Amino acid sequence: MSTGIMAADVVTTYATNAIKQLMEHEMFIDIDVLNSINRSKREIIVEVPLRRDDGKYVTFRGYRVQHNDARGPFKGGLRYHPTVDLKEVRTLAHLMSLKTAVVNVPFGGGKGGITCDPRQLSGRELETLTRNFTNLLGDNIGPLIDIPAPDVNTSAQVMAWIADEYSKRRGQCWGVVTGKPLEVGGSVGREDATGRGVMLITREAAKELGLEMSRAAVIFQGFGNVASFAAKLIHEELGARVVGLSSSKGAVYNAGGINIEAAERYYRKHGSMKGFTGGEWMTNEELLAQPCDVLIPCALGDAVNARNAARIKAKIVVEGANDCTSVEADRILQQQGVFVVPDILANAGGVVVSYFEWVQNLNNHYWGIDQVRKELERIMVTAYNKISSVSRESRISMRLAAYTVAMERIARAMILRGG
Ligand code: GLU
């Protein structure tokens, strides 16, 4: 276990700017408290053992970074991916603290993961790895301590295994993780929550900029959980045309609009969009440069970078993925007058409904879908309006406004708690 370490450049760069902003406007005076938010509170590294199906004994590196819990228990996803490392998890944990503060739900921030390629693991191997990881985390997780959730490559099933393993020696405890299946303490509306939040934020941003969504063209980068729900909702509820979609192997573009349901069926069957006839096949980089009104990156991090930012034609970028724009790319987009809605606001719908799931678990009383959707919309729109008004009043970007609001909220909680 080590403590006091800082996240990657992107987050600390914006956090430093937010501190300057808060100090300049005398909105906040305790710079030491603000600076301390840049460091994680606890970082856990474990070596997770697994007996493979072929009898071979292997271990995988697992992480849980508990960034800040001043506003409530640590909260954030677990990702299973070959590129997972401490630096990435630390950055994502830091972003979670900011995200829960932006939408003002009573959580702090954390993130975890295992460096592995889940596609190379059988179902039994994945389950055993998950249970072993849960046991190694021990009492560092818990409904009032740290509550993991799904992230890249971790499903509702993975959450069910964690809840089951955690509950074995402690009594039934659904509230230890969110994003569970409905049958075992999950919440209605959790699965599409991030995508729905992205749709709501896109709607609000378009309204602010006077963009008529029913005539708008939208490009998605990625086609996983977030993009597939967001694409469907943006088409069905806002009437927009989805003109581009991509997978890790390449992308499809169709200026007239892609049939989302057909694309989804194809993607599920083939694991890629290659060969899909509903659009022109191109590289992901080419897709980013196609004409559109809204670009929604929903793939892994650093998708919008210094090499491709200048070619982006969208008027609005809504960050469906965490940490998907580099500092340099963000500067280029700003110079081009592109309106960027940052990840910590744009994709917060998932953690908002995680909060509802946790509340339902603690109360053992379950909500209907209308309540979940109504409350999600209220929280997302309130957060959007807050960040947008700070952005306009202080003439700063939406990202800097979001960081400023989040860091002020976290710092105030830290000071009130003392210690
Ligand atoms: N992994 C999601 C995120 O990055 C959800 C986290 C959660 O629900 O705790 O926001």
Main sheet?
7 strands, mixed
Distance between the termini: 21 Å
Bound molecules: glutamic acid
Poorly predicted regions: none
The DSSP helix count reads 14
> Please, what is the CATH homologous superfamily of the domain at 193-346?
NAD(P)-binding Rossmann-like Domain
Structural class: alpha/beta
Percent in strands: 15-25%
The 3D shape can be described as globular
CATH topology tier name of the domain at 193-346:
Rossmann fold
Question: Which series of helices and strands comes N to C?
Answer: HHEEEHEHEHHEHEEHEHEEHEHHHH
Tell me, rounded to a whole number, the average pLDDT.
Answer: 95
Q: Roughly what percent helix?
A: 40-55%
Highest CATH level, the class of the domain at 193-346:
Alpha Beta
Count of strand segments: 12
CATH architectural group of the domain at 193-346 = 3-Layer(aba) Sandwich
Q: How much is the radius of gyration in Å?
A: 21 Å
Order of strands across the widest beta sheet?
9-8-7-6-10-11-12
In words, what does this structure look like?
By secondary structure, this protein is of the alpha/beta class. Among the domains are: 41-173, Rossmann fold (3-Layer(aba) Sandwich), CATH 3.40.50; 193-346, Rossmann fold, CATH 3.40.50. 45% of the residues lie in helices and 17% in strands. It has 14 helices and twelve strands. It has helices at 9-24, 31-36, 86-102, 123-137, 156-167, 193-209, 225-238, 260-270, 284-288, 327-335, 343-346, 349-363, 369-394, 398-417, and strands spanning 42-51, 57-68, 74-81, 109-115, 146-150, 217-221, 241-247, 250-253, 280-282, 294-297, 316-318, 339-341. The protein has a seven-stranded mixed β-sheet, sandwiched between helices. α4 packs across α5 and α6 packs across α7 (225-238). The longest helix has 26 residues, at 369-394. The two termini are 21 Å apart. 54% of the residues are buried. The mean pLDDT is 95. The structure holds glutamic acid. Glutamic acid binds at residues 75-77, 99, 149, 151, 178-179, 322, 347, 350-351, 354. Glutamic acid (GLU) is lined by residues 75-77, 99, 149, 151, 178-179, 322, 347, 350-351, 354.
